[in-house]
């Protein structure tokens, strides 16, 4: 065998034949779902353990805290979290029971129901944000130098799949 044959033997002509070089769409989808599920579970567990909040409850508190006047309509919260109206009603109901949010109607517009943060809700949202953000940042450090590339790619997919109304 010639020396140049040794270099090319067992090297596929098509780089896509190399494991991991060009993943199938199904594999990419599986990885996205697994990462989402696992990170969500870890963060949800930490928020329950340390702040008596579900991840969904935390996200609702965060959205309300970021809204003008720390007040948001049920529809705004539902849209921000990707929840149904029933889902957001249930989530906000639990936050009301914990004294973190109050439901109210604004004078002059009795049609829309708003969720407004209480002082306790503001404090819980601040404390839980530290836990959430630090844990997510820690887990995502595993992306290493690929973080910007992955973020950009996922942003393109997200933008392409955004529902147009």
UniProtKB/TrEMBL annotation:
Q: Which domain of life is it from?
A: Bacteria
User: Per UniProt, which keywords does this protein have?
Assistant: DNA-binding
Alphabetical list of InterPro entries matching this protein: HTH_MarR-typ, MarR/SlyA-like, WH-like_DNA-bd_sf, WH_DNA-bd_sf
Q: Which Pfam families match?
A: MarR_2 (PF12802)
GO BP terms in the entry:
response to stress
Residues annotated as domain HTH marR-type: 25-159
According to the UniProt entry, its GO molecular function terms are:
DNA binding; DNA-binding transcription factor activity
Q: What name has this protein been given in UniProt? A: DNA-binding transcriptional regulator, MarR family
Protein species of origin:
Geodermatophilus aquaeductus
């Amino acid at each position: 065998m010639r020396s140049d044959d040794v270099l090319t033997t067992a090297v596929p002509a098509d780089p896509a034949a190399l494991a991991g070089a060009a993943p199938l769409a199904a594999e990419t989808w599986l990885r996205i779902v697994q990462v989402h599920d696992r990170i969500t579970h870890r963060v949800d567990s930490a928020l329950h353990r340390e702040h008596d909040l579900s991840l969904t409850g935390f996200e609702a508190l965060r959205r309300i805290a970021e809204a003008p006047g720390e007040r948001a309509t049920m529809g705004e919260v539902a849209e921000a979290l990707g929840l149904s109206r029933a889902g957001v009603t249930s989530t906000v109901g639990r936050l009301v029971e914990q004294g973190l949010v109050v439901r109210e109607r604004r004078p002059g517009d009795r049609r829309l129901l708003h969720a407004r943060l209480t002082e306790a809700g503001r404090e819980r949202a601040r404390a839980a944000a530290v836990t959430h953000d630090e844990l997510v940042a820690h887990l995502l450090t595993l992306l290493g130098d690929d973080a910007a590339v992955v973020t950009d790619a996922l942003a393109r997919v997200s933008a392409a799949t955004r529902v147009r109304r």
